[in-house]
Specification:
The complex is a heterodimer.
Chain A lengths: L5 E7 L1 H13 L6 E6 L7 E2 L4 E6 L2 H13 L9 E5 L5 E4 L13 H14 L7
Antiparallel strand pairs in A: 1-4, 1-5, 2-4, 5-6
Chain B lengths: L10 E2 L6 E2 L5 H10 L8 H14 L2 H18 L5 H27 L11 H10 L9 H13 L2 H11 L6 H19 L6 H13 L2 H8 L5 H19 L5 H13 L12 H17 L5 H16 L3 E12 L4 E6 L5 E6 L8 E8 L5 E8 L2 E9 L3 H29 L2 H26 L8 H16 L4 H14 L5 H7 L7 H8 L3 E2 L2 E2 L1 E3 L4 E3 L2
Helix pairs in contact in B: 2-4, 2-5, 3-4, 3-10, 3-14, 3-15, 4-8, 4-11, 4-16, 7-18, 8-16, 10-11, 10-13, 11-16, 14-15, 18-20
The chains are: A alpha+beta, B alpha+beta.
């Protein structure tokens, strides 16, 4: 894991973003939230409520809190999420961390943390043991 | 930092009424529609939302708003003053945005076929475009009930609705949905026929968007753009107050159903009259031809605007690049350029010499049919149709396809010019804070209609500051449980059924029990409970 890297999670509802922020700020890791935003519609368009994205500074504390938050999610809530490893130079790389990466129903936060860490270290080559 | 968006967001452009449904995969859809097997549609929530937007904007008020924005763009492009039109359009758009989003969310979360034989255009379209081919002995509402029950039991929809509860401030989705939901409860209390949520949705949409009085307020001359904005604001405040009088509601709704079924709403049924309607029609017609007399450049733009106003009733559901392969006897295969899959086979000497084009799948104005139109440059060919179409609809659909590339380019140019025009933006920045104040006057009482008279100001303040999620103590599981009860309410009020469905919705059972007891928070009623039934009020 490299401290210069960031993790971007896309596809959160406003409630999920609130819960993630609460998880991080409640445990003193609020500084790890680098950015959160929604996609704006250009012009005068009207549309569906936007899904949100959050960019997190990858530190051991942030990673374990994200894992804890993911472990609390019920089985079908995280299916819309996508994950990216973002480097400080702005380049990004998708990582396969869909729910199929782990048995969410039974996975503990530490299991999820370990898989997430391996995914970030090895990016798409990471294993989901 | 990479801010590239992962997924397109569904939208409707109110000016052109162009609709984009995220995740709509045209090749997949065309394969499905051949046999219409029984499968769930993940698209349905987005479709219900966006089609309701389209349906709202496909109206006399929607046309007047589109006209003002298009004419403002034309005038900026011609170096003329545009701020009067722009301020009028944006004032109404800003004031109506919560109602517009609220109606669309109500269609997603609540609309359901009821006792009335009348069916909203949104549900009609959903049934026609997404229902499986199952024989229901002439009762299409059974298919809709099945589709909607499946949707409302989906954990994804719970998350989507709970996400609305987490929004704070004057958010048009949250405030709009609360306003429409509160209106539904009050209007269903005043007239039992509105227990049918789909009928309520249809009537309310008509009350706002079929209103000739609002067209007059939008287009009538005023001393200045500030006065015009005041007129529109005052009109809408009075219009909503008039709705809340509930006077003769039952007879008005009966008149509305009779006239809507005949294809033209009697404006007396929506608290207006024929004199206002005639005046609104006259002033709108005059406005649309006004710029024809201002010189050649204006005439072209005015012609384009006029044509676009006609064509915006048509809906492109999807577009696909295709190549054509013909054999010696003029049998032409229309092939998906990306996948190489054959989409259509037709015999046409006319098409035999063509190599490529675009395939447009279009829905008719009243959602009674689907058209497949092949566009090659400005030439168009009808490949297939399904359902009912009037000749005029077909003519407009083909014209829309023929003009689309040129028209889209022009629309993009005028939109860009308009949104970056310094004077227009300066004036709107002066007027918009006043309009936002009116927004609060309008929606504060509306989104808290179920609260007691003495409680609503405090309830509104809390909703804005905390959101429903905050009012529920920032308890995510409780928030989801309240959202889930509301979704299930579209087809059941029975507590035992709701408890039985909770695991399907991924709702925590303990949180559900607590949600069922949440009668009121900070003066805002949350649940109406009797011994065996419960109704979510938010």
């Amino acid at each position: 894991m490299n401290d210069n890297e960031m993790l971007k999670i896309d596809g959160l509802s406003a409630l999920q973003l609130e819960e993630l922020k609460a998880e991080l700020t409640g445990k003193g890791a609020g500084d790890g939230i680098m950015d959160s935003s929604s996609s704006a519609l250009a012009g005068a368009k009207l549309g569906e409520p936007s899904l949100l994205q959050v960019v997190l500074q990858v530190t051991p504390a942030v990673l374990s809190l994200v894992a804890l938050w993911l472990a609390k999610q019920k089985s079908k809530r995280t299916e819309t999420f996508s994950y990216k490893k973002v480097s400080k130079d702005g380049t990004s790389e998708s990582i396969d961390f869909s729910r199929s990466s782990y048995d969410e129903g039974a996975a503990s936060a530490s299991q999820i943390e370990s898989i997430l860490k391996s995914k970030l270290d090895g990016s798409s080559k990471g294993t989901a043991s | 930092m990479d801010h590239q968006k992962e997924r397109l967001r569904s939208y409707v452009d109110p000016s052109t009424n162009e609709m984009l449904i995220a995740d709509f995969d045209l090749p997949d859809y065309l394969n499905w529609v051949k046999a219409r097997p029984v499968v769930g549609s993940e698209l349905l929530a987005n479709f219900l939302h966006e089609w309701t937007h389209r349906w709202c904007f496909d109206s006399r008020v929607g046309a007047a708003l589109a006209f003002l924005r298009l004419r403002a763009g034309n005038r900026v492009l011609s170096g003329d003053s545009a701020f009067d039109d722009y301020v009028r359009c944006m004032t109404a758009m800003l004031l109506l945005e919560p109602i517009t989003e609220g109606l669309s969310l109500f269609a997603e979360f609540d609309a359901y076929p009821g006792a009335s034989a009348f069916m909203s255009q949104t549900l009609t379209a959903s049934c026609l475009f997404f229902a499986p081919a199952v024989d229901t002995d002439g009762r299409p509402e059974i298919l809709l009930q099945g589709m909607l029950q499946k949707l409302r039991r989906s954990p994804h929809l719970v998350e989507r609705k709970a996400g609305i509860y987490a929004k704070t401030g004057f958010d048009p989705y949250a405030i709009g949905y609360l306003s429409i939901k509160s209106l539904w409860k009050q209007m269903a209390g005043a007239y039992n026929g509105f227990v049918d949520r789909d009928l309520f949705l249809s009537y309310l949409r008509s009350y706002i968007y079929d209103d000739p009085g609002l067209v007059l307020a939008l287009l009538k001359p005023a001393h200045s753009e500030v006065h015009a904005a005041e007129n529109i604001s005052n009109y809408l405040l009075n219009r909503v107050a008039s709705l809340l009088s509930f006077q003769d509601l039952e007879s008005k709704v009966a008149l509305w159903i009779d006239s809507a079924e005949q294809g033209k709403v009697d404006v007396a049924s929506i608290n207006s009259n024929s004199e206002i309607e005639e005046e609104a029609n006259f002033i709108f017609e005059q406005a649309t031809v006004e710029d024809f007399t201002k010189g050649a450049n204006y005439e072209n733009l005015a012609t384009w605007t006029y044509m676009l106003l006609e064509e915006r009733a048509q809906c492109v559901l999807g577009v696909m690049e295709v190549r054509l392969e013909a054999d010696a006897d003029h049998t032409v295969q229309v092939i998906n350029k990306d996948t190489g899959e054959n989409i259509y086979t037709t015999v046409s000497p006319e098409l035999a010499n063509q190599r490529e084009g675009k395939l447009y799948i279009m829905a008719g104005r009243k959602a009674h049919g689907l058209l497949s139109i092949l566009g090659i440059g400005q030439r168009t060919y009808l490949l297939s149709s399904f359902g009912a179409f009037e000749d005029r609809d077909l003519e407009l659909a083909k014209r829309h396809v023929a003009n689309k590339d040129i028209s889209d380019g022009l629309f993009e140019t005028i939109s860009r010019k308009l949104d970056s025009d310094g004077l227009v933006n300066t004036i709107w920045n002066i007027v918009s804070p006043q309009v936002k104040t009116v927004q609060e006057h309008l929606y504060g009482p509306l989104c808290t209609l179920n609260a007691r008279e003495a409680d609503w100001p405090q309830a509104f303040k809390q909703v804005r500051e905390l959101g429903i999620h905050g009012l529920l103590g920032y308890d995510g599981e409780l928030t989801r449980a309240v959202a889930g009860i509301g979704l299930l309410n579209s087809f059941t009020l029975e507590v035992e059924f709701i408890k039985a469905f909770a695991p399907v919705l991924d709702i925590d059972e303990e949180a559900l029990e607590r949600a069922l007891q949440k009668n009121e928070i900070a003066g805002l009623p949350i649940m109406a409970r009797s011994q065996h039934s419960v109704l979510a009020l938010v």
